[in-house]
Amino acid sequence: MKLVTIPLILFPCTAFASNTNAETWVALVFAVILGAITIAVSSSNQKKLDDPNDTSMLLIEDVSSASNLKPAKEFLIRIYRQSGNEHQPDRVVSAEDGSDVPPDEAIKVALQTLRRARIDSVFVVENTNDILHIRRPMHSHGGKAEGKKVGGAVVIKVQED
To answer: Where are the alpha helices (DSSP H) in 53-102?
Structure first.
């Protein structure tokens, strides 16, 4: 596909060239540059997903296994929108008997919301023993719902006193 688009970009038809003014050419060049940047970013993200040693971008199924969170009495789960505002109230995951909760249980709760939002891969912003912060890889420009869609999740280990 890339090989076909390059000649079309570099050699537009002569009929188009003879009937255009400078503003049209500037707009065309700008569109070509924007398209090239989009293709480069998309290709880079795909390479990150394909590389098993790169944990900066993960498929949703691989988040639990790549997490560095340690078991704790409680985990706080914060889901936020693309705009950065709260998407839903914070949730606390804890064991009824007061024992330690495995981090996989807390991550599972966060991933349910991301799956419901049809997010299949995430960027890992922070992955430490106390915090797992993941976000959607691309901003979704969805009309009137723009900024209201799920942007990411933070799973925070609640420190024991």
So the answer is: 63-66
Asked if 73 and 160 count as a contact pair (C-beta separation under 8 A), the reply is yes
Domain boundaries, the chain: 2-50, 57-157
Task: Determine the Cα–Cα distance for residues 74 and 51; give it in Å rounded to an integer.
Answer: 33
The segments of the chain whose pLDDT lies below 70 read: 1-20, 42-54, 139-147, 160-161
Inter-CA distances, 6 with 9, 26, 35, 117, 133, Å: 5, 18, 11, 35, 38
This prediction has a pTM of 0.67
Q: The tokens of 114 are what?
A: 């991301």
Query: Hey, how many other C-beta atoms are within 10 angstroms of the C-beta on 126?
Result: 11
Contact (Cβ atoms closer than 8 angstroms) between residue 128 and residue 121: no
